Amino acid sequence: MNLLFPIKEEMMAQRIEMQIxxxxxxxxxxxxxxxxxxxxxxxxxxxxxxxIFKGARCMNLCSNGPNLRINERIIExxxxxxxxxxxxxxxxxxx
Length: 95
What we know:
alpha+beta, 4 strands, 19% strand
């Protein structure tokens, strides 16, 4: 443990990694709009410093996409109409 900066180290341990599939199948099914929504959601809820959000190459689950990975859990069938509920459920304990 870093004794000079224990709070920062603790925050880093709690960071969540979220990846959205940007493969052609998922992207063509509306992930562009989902990406924009997630970015705005993270900003609005002051989660940008706690959640690392980035695009990912194809997750090889094309028939079940669009796909979102939060840490090691994959959520399939993510759409613009579902994403707010997904994020609320996933991050209710850290907001």
